[in-house]
Structure formats: structure tokens, C-alpha cells
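wait is this the right file?? whatever heres the structure
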């Protein structure tokens, strides 16, 4: 089984070659190794000197930081490994054990909606990831016996197995962060989007490098940026208050006569880092505001790609497969993209016919035919279906009410429409509107800038019932199971699920 692995390199050619060798010793997978070089020319010069290669070298013109280089890796994976379900983003000082990558991949493919999986770092004191308190991240450690999977807020970015379906839906790392805390930001976004972030304890690795002297400065600065990005002005104020408190504590510790000279010196070094972080934030105030106002801006994967990558909605949506009634035999997947949903459906159901239709050309052997064009006018006449699947489609239609009335010759009388519809009452939308007075469009999600219509639970039901359909099944899906939102939802006993569900799943039957 091939697995694309991207090693991010900066200023450590010996270390990256050792990482490549460790990855190539992996058991149970066939790693296809690429090195993204943030040190222009340095690694190529080393390879010209006779070092062993065995990997593809992607050279950048300048140092883009870990996040920027990782986004180049994700763009490369989407273009050159389009069928890969996952890829690995690794630091140049990662040392995975031989069974590590296979354990990560087995866990991610055997459990639904794992967006990011990471190993347990045994030599670092059994680090399994970390927690996020709204202001900064904290390490989380475990002790044996280990559970198979540990749900966490974030994982150590030295080794991450990332689901490409999530990347297609939501983008990549936030390139504005450069290096440090970019892993925390990515994992928090994965969790907020309804996917899972897990440490696979059977997968063991080590990170052998040392942190640079200015790591405290970078972590302080980027933790505040992530707080501003994810929690708005309130998060910014809370994180700034914590940083100022650290400055006060650092000053007190650096002059306390009861402490040893060595400890006072260490406190002065930390104080200096805190002050430098404050200086960075003051000088970069435009970036701080940009994080608040445009939180998704740095995650786009089409900016700067050569050739440009234009992400299309391409999620598998396996959670929608159980909503397709077992008796249907002729299915049309509307807005099928590259056909991942239909392929998953055909593995589960004995279908006589599976067609797709999408504005962009596509080819997938699971489908009997994929039509390029608009629905329903570009469908060939004469072919009807007993089931239409509309996964996140109706909100893109100018007149979805009229569309449901115009299905003669497409959907059989008594046929069903299976649809997922984004929930505009989601907490992320309501919170921004009510608390901050903002309605901000994004590249993905409920407020996707290509959405023309917005629905609550009541209006989604009314959409179908107003056209004479009988709603047979209506469920709130992609609900948070972990983190603060998951705890709050369970505390409310599911009575506020309208605020937590990202989407509604609808099964509605056309009049016979």
C-alpha cells in the first residue's frame, strides 16, 4: 500500500537524510518519500556530494516556514497522488519506528472521520498530544496501559497523518503562522469541523531535534494569533492577558533574591522572549487583525501553486451512505465531483445503475456514467432514477424549491431524494452574528462564499414538504463528540443539537 510522505527540511541535511532512511524502513506500507526543502540549494548540494537519496526533492525559493512548506506538500499530494486517501507530513527530525506508519494508516482507515492521526512520542515522556484552553496549548501525556486511540485537541506536528478528504474540504495549514503552533491550529480546525483528532498509541516515534533558543517567543506570538483567529476579539484579549501575566511573573522571578543565580538567569531569558513576542505582535498588528477578520485566509491551497490548484469539493461523505434506502437500485449522484461518495455507496449496495453529474469533468470506474453539465437540463432524456443524492448541493441552487418541482423524467414517482444541507443555525454562525455582529463568508463550511441559500432545520423540512415530498427521515449530522463543544452538547442532553450540527441529512419521497 503506497503512502505519500512529505518531510519538511530546514537547515539540517544530515537529520533529514536520517529521517528519510527511517521512513523507508517502514513495514506494511510502501512510503513514497518527498522532501520539501526550505533551505534553498543546501540539500541539493549535499546530495551532489554523494549522499544517498531515494526520494523526490521539492525545492522552494525561500523559507516559507513549516506551515508554508507543508501546504506545498499538500498541493503536491493533491496533484500527483490524487487517489491517496492520506498523506504524512513530517519534520526533518522525526524517527518513526518501523510499524508506526502502518499503525497510523490502519487506525485512520478503520475508524470513521479521523481527520488527523499522530503517533505516541515515547522518548518524550509518552506525549500523546495536547489540550487547548482558548489561549495556548498544553502537553498531554499518558501512562500504560494505553488505550488504542486517545482523543486530543491537537497533535505534535513532527508527524501527522492527514486525511486528504478533510484537506479537500477545508484547505491546509495556516501559512501566516510560519513555524510553531501551526500544528495546534490545524488540529483545532479539524476538531471544529466535526472530524476527529487522535493519537494512535501503537504507533511510536521520536523527535530527536532540539528546539531553537527563540521557541518561547514564537510559541507566545503564534498562540495569540491562533486565539484571535479561532475565538475572535475575546480570544485575543484573553491570550494577551495571559502573555502580560507571564511578563509580570517573569520579571518577578528574574529579580527574586531567594532564587539561585542560574534560575534567575533562566527567568530573564524567558522574560526577554515574552517581551520580544509582544514586540512582534505590536509591529505586526495588521496580521493580528487579519487573523480576526479573515480566519481562513492563510489556509488556501491554490495561492502560489504552480500549476495553480483549484480545490473542488471532493469529500467521500461516508456518513451519508446509510441514508440511502436499501431498496433503491438506480442512483444519480448530483454534484458528484470525482465520485468518491458513489464509490463508497457501490461498495455497500447492490446497485443496478449509478450515474453522476457535475459541472467539471470527472471519471470514476465505480460509476456507469458521469455527465459533465448542469442538473437537470444537461442529463440525457429517457433515463430515470429511483434515488437522487444531493450532498451539499441544494444550497448552491438559486431556486431549490423550483428544482424539486422540475424532476419529471428524472426521478421516478415515489422515488427518493437523499440530501445533506448545511445548518445556518450552527454555533459558529450564530456566535459570529449575535456576539460580534459579523456574517463572514469563507472558502468552505456553512458560510461558503458559493452558497446562495441558507437553511435551518425548519426551513430545510419546509423545502421538501412545500414541494409535496414526504420527509421520511431527518437527522442532525456531524455533531461534535469531543472537546468543549462535545462536552457542552452532552451536558445539554442533545436539546441544543440545532446549534452543534454542521449539516442535516434528509430522506424525502416524491409523491407517487
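ok assuming it is, sequence goes like this
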Amino acid at each position: 500500500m503506497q503512502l505519500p510522505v512529505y518531510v519538511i527540511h530546514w537547515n539540517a541535511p544530515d537529520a533529514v537524510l536520517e529521517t528519510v532512511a527511517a521512513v523507508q524502513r517502514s513495514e506494511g506500507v510502501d512510503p513514497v518519500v518527498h522532501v520539501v526543502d526550505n533551505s534553498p540549494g543546501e540539500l541539493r548540494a549535499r546530495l551532489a556530494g554523494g549522499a544517498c537519496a531515494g526520494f523526490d526533492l521539492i525545492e522552494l525559493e525561500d523559507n516559507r516556514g513549516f506551515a508554508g512548506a507543508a501546504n506545498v506538500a499538500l498541493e503536491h499530494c493533491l496533484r500527483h497522488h490524487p487517489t491517496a486517501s492520506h498523506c504524512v507530513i513530517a519534520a526533518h527530525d522525526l524517527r518513526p519506528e518501523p510499524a508506526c506508519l502502518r499503525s497510523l494508516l490502519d487506525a485512520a482507515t478503520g475508524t470513521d472521520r479521523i481527520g488527523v492521526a499522530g503517533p505516541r512520542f515515547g522518548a518524550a515522556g509518552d506525549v500523546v498530544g495536547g489540550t487547548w484552553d482558548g489561549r495556548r496549548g498544553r502537553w498531554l501525556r499518558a501512562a500504560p496501559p494505553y488505550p488504542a486511540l486517545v482523543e486530543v485537541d491537537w497533535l505534535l506536528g513532527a508527524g501527522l497523518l492527514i486525511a486528504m478528504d478533510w484537506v479537500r474540504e477545508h484547505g491546509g495549514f495556516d501559512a501566516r503562522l510560519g513555524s510553531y503552533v501551526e500544528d495546534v491550529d490545524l488540529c483545532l480546525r479539524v476538531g471544529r469541523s466535526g472530524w476527529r483528532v487522535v493519537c494512535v498509541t501503537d504507533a511510536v516515534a521520536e523527535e530527536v531535534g532540539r528546539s531553537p533558543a527563540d521557541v518561547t517567543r514564537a510559541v507566545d506570538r503564534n498562540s495569540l494569533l491562533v486565539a484571535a483567529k479561532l475565538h475572535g476579539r475575546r480570544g485575543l484579549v484573553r491570550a494577551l492577558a495571559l502573555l502580560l501575566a507571564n511578563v509580570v511573573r517573569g520579571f518577578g522571578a528574574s529579580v527574586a533574591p531567594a532564587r539561585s543565580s542560574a534560575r534567575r538567569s533562566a527567568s530573564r531569558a524567558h522574560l526577554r522572549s515574552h517581551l520580544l513576542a509582544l514586540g512582534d505582535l505590536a509591529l505586526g498588528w495588521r496580521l493580528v487583525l487579519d487573523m480576526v477578520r479573515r480566519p481562513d485566509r492563510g489556509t488556501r491551497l491554490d495561492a502560489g501553486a504552480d500549476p495553480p490548484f483549484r480545490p473542488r469539493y471532493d469529500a467521500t461523505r461516508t456518513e451519508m451512505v446509510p441514508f440511502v434506502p436499501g431498496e433503491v437500485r438506480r442512483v444519480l449522484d448530483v454534484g458528484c465531483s470525482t465520485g468518491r461518495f458513489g464509490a463508497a455507496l457501490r461498495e455497500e449496495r447492490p446497485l443496478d445503475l449509478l450515474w453522476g453529474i457535475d459541472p467539471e469533468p470527472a471519471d470514476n470506474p465505480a460509476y456507469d456514467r458521469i455527465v459533465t453539465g448542469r442538473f437537470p437540463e444537461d442529463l440525457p432524456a429517457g433515463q430515470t432514477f429511483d434515488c437522487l443524492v444531493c450532498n451539499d448541493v441544494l444550497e448552491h441552487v438559486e431556486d431549490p424549491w423550483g428544482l424539486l418541482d422540475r424532476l419529471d423524467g428524472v426521478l421516478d414517482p415515489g422515488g427518493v431524494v437523499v440530501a445533506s444541507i448545511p445548518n445556518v443555525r450552527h454555533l459558529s454562525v450564530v456566535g459570529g452574528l449575535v456576539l460580534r455582529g459579523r456574517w463572514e463568508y469563507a472558502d468552505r463550511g456553512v458560510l461558503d462564499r458559493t452558497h446562495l441559500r441558507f437553511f435551518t432545520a425548519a426551513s430545510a423540512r419546509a423545502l421538501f414538504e412545500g414541494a409535496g415530498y414526504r420527509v421520511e427521515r431527518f437527522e442532525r449530522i456531524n455533531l461534535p463528540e469531543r472537546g468543549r463543544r462535545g462536552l457542552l452538547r452532552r451536558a445539554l442532553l442533545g436539546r441544543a443539537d440545532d446549534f452543534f450540527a454542521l449539516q442535516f441529512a434528509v430522506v424525502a419521497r416524491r409523491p407517487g
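The chain has a mean pLDDT of 88. so i think its the right one actually
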